[in-house]
Each structure stands twice: as C-alpha cells, then as structure tokens.
Design brief:
The chain has 342 residues and is of the alpha/beta class. The chain has one domain: Alpha-Beta Complex (Inosine-uridine Nucleoside N-ribohydrolase, Chain A), CATH 3.90.245.10. The chain is built from 11 helices and 9 strands.
Amino acid sequence: MTQFPYYEQALYRPDFGSKTLGEPVVFNMDMSAGDFLALFYLLKVPVEVINFKAIHLSPTGWANTATIDVIYDLLHMMGRDDIPVGLGDVFGMNQYTAENSVKYGASRDTEHPELRQPLALEVWESVVETLDPGSKMTILTNGPLTNLARIVTSEKNATSAIQEVYIVGGHISHSDMDKGNVFSVPYIEFAEFNLDRVAAKTVFDSELDITLIPLGIQRRLGSFPRILERFQETKTTPEAKFAHRLLSRLYRLQQRHLRYQHTDIFLGEILGAVALAGYHSSLKQTLRVEPINVFAEGVEFKDGQTVTDEYHGKLVKILENVDPTAYYDLYVNEQEIQSSRL
C-alpha cells in the first residue's frame, strides 16, 4: 500500500497526426507571474501557427532554481510533457557559475549525472538537431538575455539556426522624465529589469534579426481593469480561471500596497507572446526601425540603458503600437477553449 494509492505516473505527449506544424519557437523565461501567463498563451496557440520546441529558464530574483518544477507541472497539465526545459545561469554574464568553477578544479556531484537538470545550451543543441533541413527557429525572450548570449557565444555557430528573436525588455527613453523600472536600485534611472547588461550588449552586437518590445509599449497596454473586464465575459475554463485569479490578485496588491506598484509590468510580458503569434490581422501591429545600442561599460548608473545610436547602433525592429482591444481579446479568447488535460 503506497502513500498515494491513486497516483499514476503518466506522460502526456500530443499526437499532431497530419497537421502541418507552424514556426518552431523557443521560449526563454524567468519565473515571474507574467511569464507564466505568456506560457499559457503560447501553449494554447494552434500548433499550425507555433511549433513549441523548448523552454529556457533563467532563475532570477522572482524565484529560485527549484521552482522549475512548477513549469514541469504546468506542461504536464497542458498535455505537453514533450517540451524540454533547459536551466540557464542564475547570475548574469561575467559572474560566478558552478559550471565555470569546474575549469579551476572545483568538484561537482557526478555520481548520478542522469538526474541532473539539462542546461539551456544542452537543450538548445538537442532541439537544433531535430530541425528539418533549412528550418530555423524563432526565440521569444521574456527573461534576461543571458541564455541567448550563451548561444551567441557558443563555439558551434548555433545562431545559424535562429530565424528571428523577439525581446521583451529594454527601455528607450525620450526625456528625463521617461524613466525605466529598476525600482530596486534608484540611481539606475533609465534601465529596464529584463536586461542583463553584458548579455544584452552581446546579443545586440550579434547578427541576429531582432524585434524589440520595449517598456514604453508595455506600459501603454498594461491596464488591469480592461483585461479583467474582458475576462468577466469569457467561459470559465481552468486556464481562464487561473489567469483571471492571478491578474486579479496582482491588481489588488497594486491598489493596496505601495511596494506592489510595479505589478503592471507583468501585463507587458504577455505582449511578446501575443505579438509573436500575431496570426490575427486585428492586432494591427506597427513597427519602426532604429539603430539601437546597449551600454555595458562598467558605469553603474549608466549600464543597461538602451539608446538610439546612429553611429554604433544595430538596426532593430521596434514594436510601436498594437490595437489594445484586439490585444486583450486575443489573449482572453485563447483561454476560452479548454486544452488542459488535468
């Protein structure tokens, strides 16, 4: 007699049959509330539009590495145990990592290597091997760019398999009053939370095709009342209930506590997933192209700033506007059809 007599170990792997799979996508996330809402959306977009290949996880201040189990639970509930999860670095580039320490003689627990969580770069390499000849992947980065920078600097020319990168983050300031959101370090006024400055510099100096979704448009579309009102009209599937309750809790915290005034940044993280899917013309996306540079010079008050630089910048597509009503409708409508297995 076991402690859990009704427990059944099962893996849910989808059978796509004769469906024509869409664009291969890798999602790079941290453990913030907004990233889980974005993950729900990506898992519910039709596979003919997005062929979800892998997740790269960046442990950050929102949650530690052990919470990777939450992602596995979510994938299991959604019937997608086939999606591999790769663990990225806990710290930014040029900082200590356990993997780097091995080079200098540090010991590692290697008695059971088969139980070790796959690393982000290992998962990337395995997914690249499964691509059809000539196929390339699109990467959506909702977390720090550390994992993507590791791919860019890897010795195996991994970037040749990348079609395009959507980066949710960065802040292009247009005035002294247009400040960033690094509220935990007051003297860093114009940077944005999602950017590991050295990694961002590495990515923006690369040959990657980049679409940037900066803080400005995230703020314009970050309206709790509007998206919560839209959820009131939807069917109560498990996915819709989860998203509605989470957003409601964040909104209540923002209203009641001064230290939670930043919670609307999580709404902006949904935007990257909706823009990437972009299979509805009603979204009416408009883009502009600008030469962008990232400061990473070791000057604390300046590092992490994303600026327009005509002389040294990289030409980047910047999401300038979308239809707000269509944006909320597209996210909420995907929650109306139940696709969870549990």
